[in-house]
Amino acid sequence: MGVKKTTQFKIWRSNIEPTSSIGTWGRGLFCSDKSDIYYNKNIDNYNVAQFGKAFSERLAALGYPKYEGEESAFADKLGDEPDFKAGFTLLALNYQGCGEPKDMHGKGTIKLRVELFSSKTKKVAYSATLNGSHATEDSSKMEAFDAALFTNALNGMFSDPKFVDLFREGGDIAAASFNDKIDVVNGTRITEGMGKSSKELLNLVVTVDASLGSGSGFFVGNGGYILSNYHVVGEAKYVKVKFTGGISTVGEVVRRDPVRDVALIKTNVEPGRSISIRRGPIKVGEEVYAIGSPFGDQLSGTTTRGIISADRILEDLRFIQSDVSINPGNSGGPLVDAAGDVLAIAVLKKENAAGIGMFIPITEALEKLGLNLK
Question: By the 8 A CB rule, do 132 and 145 touch?
């Protein structure tokens, strides 16, 4: 009732590595002749086409207005944009199937992340993790099986009141209201730099435990606010925040930006000092340090040293590249310079490559979360 806005299936990405196993497929009378299924480009292209079809059919079936500009390759250039652009990231896929594509049965599961980008506010207005499953013992065509699997995942989105409300008048403006500015006071530098007084920063860096796993974070300002990654907290409302001394508290995730992969957590703890944030430009070759909790809170406060390797633009997003050592669990932790000023937030270690880590510039993280540095 009352949905008036349009959306377009715009982006598909897969986090599944090529040649990764996504299940098994059996043949023969008793399906005993099983072999592994490996993800590849052909499967990815197939998923794009079939998922896009399922998305469009579900929109139509539920009465959402059709975006007519899909028929024009130049719609965006002509100013005819949909109200929302939908992006999906494939997180996991598994088949336990048997038979042939035209005559198969079995079961499958899928996990995706959906993001809706508002053409009006130029921000992500909605994000969620979707899970779907489908099983049948009856003979089915592969396309029909996948249509049911994809539709079951999409139903989790279409049944979410937050999603539906976006398509009513003013919905995306309400969703963007978290951009009201929060003032955070910049801190003072540690007394003797990272070489002699790095311990002064350790109490400002924490371990963040959420349903998706464990990561790192650090206090900014004096209001009990902690910066971390979106992929650490996901869609959790509350997370556990652990300090280096073993004490823990509960934090509420009050803001998040899935595209820039940053999140803001509010706690009732105010540290004795405020971390110093660098405002000036970075220099390739300068010394930097990463602080965080690789592999969980048992290694909290781990500090590693390296240099800035490059300042890069990847998929329209800016990253600081460094050879400083980071591992799973470092995500959300600070990258600081030799004086102890925060430059960036750890976000990604390049798989199967040594000495390549990516970090989100701190100034962009503050901007995306609506934090005003005083």
Answer: no
Q: Which tokens in the block code for residue 365?
A: 């993280």
Write out the DSSP string of 112-137.
Answer: EEEEEEETTTSSEEEEEEEEEEEEEE
According to the model, what pLDDT value does residue 173 have? Answer: 58
Token pair, residue 369, equals 């979360």
pLDDT digits (tens, 9 = 90+) for 230-246: 888 887 889 999 988 77
Instruction: Supply 190's token pair.
Output: 């540690």
CB 308 within 8 A of CB 326: no
**Which residue, among 258, 184, 195, has the nearest Cα to 218 in the 3D structure?**
184
The DSSP bridge partners found for residue 265 are 226, 253
The pTM score is 0.56
Tokens of 103: 């005559």
Contact call for residues 227 and 264 (beta carbons, < 8 A): yes
Name the nearest CA neighbour of 253 among 203, 293, 215: 215
Structure tokens, 335: 């990258």
In this structure, how many other beta carbons lie within 10 angstroms of the beta carbon of residue 341? 21
DSSP 8-state assignment for residue 192? S
d(Cα 167, Cα 3) in Å, to the nearest integer? 5
Indicate the helix (H) or strand (E) that contains 244: none
Rounded to whole angstroms, the Cα distance separating 286 from 275 reads: 20
Q: Could you give the count of Cα atoms lying within 13 Å of 171 in the half-sphere of its Cβ?
A: 23
CA 125 to chain centre: 14
CA distance 309 to 287: 10
Write the pLDDT tens digit of every residue in 329-359.
888 999 999 988 999 999 876 665 677 889 9
Beta strands in the chain (DSSP E): 7-14, 21-27, 33-38, 84-100, 103-118, 124-140, 182-184, 205-210, 213-220, 225-228, 238-242, 248-257, 262-266, 287-292, 302-314, 317-322, 334-337, 342-349, 357-361, 371-373
Q: 84-93 as b/e, with b when 16 or more CB fall inside 10 Å?
A: bbbbbbbbeb
Q: Which residues contact 354 (CB under 8 A, 6 or more apart)?
A: none
CA distance 53 to 56: 5
